[in-house]
Amino acid sequence: MQRINQAYGENDLLQLLALQHESGLMEAQAVHQIGDAQLKKYNQALKEHLATLKGKMQTLQQHLAGRLGIPLFAIHSPHALSRDLQETIQATRQAMSGLRQEMKRLSQPAYVKRWIKTARRELASEDYIDDDFF
Q: Cα 109 to the chain's mean position, in Å?
């Protein structure tokens, strides 16, 4: 009874029909005897319910896209989104690994000296270096 009240309160015709069928109140023959006017009413209610669900889904997609910092059109399907997120996670892990290695190298004074000399040579060759600065 609680499920029926909840479905009725939410104006969820689909759930009400399922519960009616579940409880044995609606036999297969009875479905065939529903009049056209009643079917139109059911169809209209289902269309309205579908529109509501589509609106909720679009709102959730917009919220998700905003939270992830991606454009809304990038959310094609849950599977594609999951795949894209896994690729992003993998790329981030690789970048973090590279940064950890670079941090280890930068903790060695000899490496830092070589890095500075190389950077100076590259800047000098591009005429970007300001001799007064170094």
A: 45
CA neighbor of 44 nearest in space, from 4, 6, 8, 13: 13
Tokens 């269309």, residue located: 47
* 133 DSSP 8-state letter: T
Residues in the chain: 134
Distance of CA 94 to the CA centre of its chain: 22
Contacts (Cβ under 8 Å, ≥6 apart) of 13: 42, 45, 46, 49
Give 72-95 pLDDT, tens digit per residue: 777 777 888 888 889 989 999 999
Contact criterion met (CB below 8 Å) for 94 and 88: no
- Supply 115's token pair: 């890095």
Instruction: Report H helices in 1-134.
Output: 2-9, 13-22, 28-32, 36-68, 78-106, 109-125
Q: What is the pTM of this model?
A: 0.45
For the chain, the C-alpha Rg in angstroms (whole number) is 31
